[in-house]
Write a structure and sequence with these properties.
Layout lengths: L30 E6 L2 E6 L3 H4 L5 E5 L1 E3 L3 E5 L5 E11 L3 H5 L4 E9 L9 E3 L5 H6 L2 E8 L2 E7 L6 H8 L14 H6 L7 E4 L11 H9 L3 E7 L22 E6 H13 L3 E4 L1 H20 L9 H4 L6 H14 L4 E6 L14 E5 L6 H10 L2 H11 L10 E5 L9
Parallel strand pairs: 1-17, 3-12, 3-14, 4-11, 14-16
Antiparallel strand pairs: 1-2, 5-6, 5-8, 6-7, 7-10, 8-9, 9-10, 12-13, 13-15, 16-17
Helix pairs in contact: 7-10, 8-10
């Protein structure tokens, strides 16, 4: 049953000067707020490895931000910005990025009132190479409140190369500035691999190669998931009650080997550490895919309110075992699905014990997730961060939040 929660209960005053407009000079020189046993303290992110329980399992989201903002120009001189959200033809990310000559994407179009039909041309600003590519865009339909745009271009360039040549990094709107040279490197994690996100999994922006090495030396095992972060992550909750908010869906993929490690960690009572809210959404969705396997024999996508309406609640081991058995029966090494899961107070975390995350906007679904994880203590955490000059949002400082203790699960 959908919880009766009013969004105005998750508000706080965030002065503009508390929002980090640019990253720190060095990634790992940010601060970190530590919430453990209902106590709050702070330290340096450089010292993160020493805060982690040895023999734990740490999960990173390896998605990579793509330069998804493309600026076109009509013959009248009007500029049209196309913000690519996800591919639709071909619909698979890897196939779309490797497309040559044409592909179609679901997009948000800026200044769309000036563009009802016809071809528009990429604004090459006189660049000879870009002129020869001849990138064009045409409206070819709509999906919900978004546009479907078909791109065409000359030569043997893949669409991935077209984006790299023509696109801009889509930094968050609350930074209130255009993307700059520093964003190309810094609005990307050092371990990013799989292209597809239009927003960074920002909890990972603090990690350097040196910190990752120290984490391994600490005895912590690192694993990865891939959830492509959509622009919906920036959509504020505009409804009075959370139950009336439509949560965005995002595609994710996990490996069979990761599922087995999560199952084993659950059985052995190991801490599972999630780097970022996107990793949390992925991990907690896996439990419900396993529930689906037990209920209907196969995993589909995870709907928004499924965790709150699910009739059966097996152990984590039984759920992940069911999902593992299905993948093995289908001879699959990788599982690809979508999740619309919304994590709000009342949510029962099944997999994650520790969360590393930045500080989030008032009245956002991400702040709701934090509240679900730490309870009403989120108010004290954010009050401490504001009063002690922590930097907020995507380029801001970090926090490590200790949730429930892991329990040995052998049932």
């Amino acid at each position: 049953m959908e919880p009766e929660i009013k969004i105005d209960q998750f508000n706080y005053i965030l002065p503009d000067e508390k929002i980090a407009k640019y990253p720190t000079e060095q990634r790992d020189h940010s601060r970190i707020l530590i919430f453990k046993n209902n106590n709050i303290s702070d330290g340096k992110f450089l010292n993160l490895p020493g805060l982690l329980p040895p023999s734990s399992l740490m999960i990173f989201n390896n998605t990579k931000v793509v330069p998804a903002r493309l600026i076109f120009k009509k013959t009248t001189g009007a500029h049209i910005e196309i913000f690519c959200l996800e591919p639709i033809s071909p619909s698979e990310y890897n196939k779309s990025f490797s497309s040559v000559g044409t592909c179609s994407w679901i997009a948000v179009v800026g200044n769309i009132k000036r563009w009802k039909e016809g071809l528009i041309f990429f604004d090459s600003a006189g660049d000879e190479i870009l002129d020869n590519i001849g990138l064009t865009a045409e409206l070819s339909g709509s999906k919900e409140d978004k546009s479907i745009v078909t791109f065409k271009w000359n030569g043997d360039y893949t669409f991935s190369q077209i984006m790299d040549l023509c696109g801009k990094i889509p930094i968050p709107p609350y930074l209130r500035r255009d993307s700059q040279e520093c964003d190309i490197e810094r609005y990307q994690t050092t371990y990013a691999k799989e292209k597809g996100s239009v927003a960074a999994p920002t909890a990972g922006l603090h990690f350097t190669k040196q910190i990752l090495e120290k984490i391994v030396e600490r005895g912590v095992e690192k694993e990865e998931v891939c959830l492509h972060v959509g622009a919906g992550t920036f959509i504020p909750v505009k409804t009075t009650f959370i139950k009336d908010h439509k949560m965005h869906g995002e595609p994710f993929s996990v490996t069979l080997s990761l599922l087995k490690k999560l199952r084993d960690a659950s059985v052995n009572g190991k801490y599972i550490i999630s780097v970022g809210t996107t990793s949390v959404r992925t991990l907690e969705s896996l439990y419900y895919l396993g529930v689906q396997c037990l209920d209907i024999g196969r995993p589909g996508d995870v709907t928004q309110w499924e965790p709150y309406n699910s009739i059966i609640k097996p152990s984590v081991k039984d759920s992940l075992d069911a999902l593992i058995r299905w993948m093995e029966s289908e001879k699959r090494d990788t599982l690809e699905r979508r999740t619309e899961i919304i994590i709000v107070p009342g949510f029962e975390f099944k997999i994650c014990n520790i969360l590393i995350t930045n500080f989030h906007q008032p009245q956002s679904t991400l702040l709701l997730l934090i509240s679900a994880f730490v309870g009403d203590q989120w108010r004290n955490i954010y009050k401490y961060a504001l009063e002690n000059n922590f930097r907020f949002l995507s380029y801001g400082d970090s926090s490590i939040l200790f949730g429930r203790e892991p329990q040995i699960n052998i049932d």
